[in-house]
Amino acid sequence: MTTRALAAWLVLSAGGWPGPLLAGADADDYAEPLRRAPAQLSLTSSQEQAVGIRVEQPLALRSAPQIEAYGTVLDPVALATDMGRVETTRVAAAAAEAEATRLEHLYRDDAQVSLKASQAAQAQAAEASAQARAAALGFSLQWGPLASWSAGQRRALLEALTHGRQLLVRADVPAHPLGSTVDRHAVVVIDGVNVSARVLGPLPRTDGPAQTAGWLLQLERTPGALGPGARIEVRLQAAATSGLLVPAEALVYAEKGSYVYRRHRTSSAAGFHYEAVPVRPLSRVGSAWLVEGLAPDDQVVVQGAGVLWSLQGVGSFSAAEEEHD
By CB count within 10 A, which of 137, 254, 256, 301 is most buried? Predict the structure, then answer.
């Protein structure tokens, strides 16, 4: 007998065959056990004890957890190559467009330019423009925030990188959403020394083999020489978020999102109502989750949430079952 089936049997046996086990249910509803369960569940005190339900109030918390990452020093030659490709294709596209415009005007003025020559120039201009757009898109994917910099800013950065005054580092974060907000300041560990780094922004192109989200960091005044490809430890700082802290065991994951159970006392002093409340997990804090969607005075089920969800007959799994199965 599985844990869920055993818990359900305990609930049923604790009060015989209870009429109010599921709010609004009658005898015919049990022909399809709990599959058509209503949104709210009711248990008596004896049933609650049989299942082992435990409730607590969530803890208000403001958290800014550190994100462990591994960094790779980027090669300034690659940046110079990509910058050169963007610039040359842009200039070539502008020149091709100007030539196509010139030949079109000459053709319209009947100045000894054939239609074929004018059309060929237009085709070359279209091809050059496509190459320029592809180069710009590739640069944006590879270098992220540097794509919005001016040409002068990029040249100044390249000069600093070439002379070793600065470093660019790609910080890869396994299993971390790329859209997550990260603080502008980070710490890079070089030979046991903590070095401050500036987070320039996310890198849209993921690392191929590891499929990790990346962030571009800029370092100045590094202690010692680090060549391209060197691996270093990076600590990013997630942006501070406020929410309510609940144990991981309180969360139940379903197709439409994450839920916790909130308990309400019924009109009878001998029973309780349990309501599945949708929440949004913000960040993991040790063995708990910071969530939003609850009130500080809510009575949250921190033990037995998976059993309650099973009694409602909804296909899902709880965080506790995921960790212990």
Answer: 301
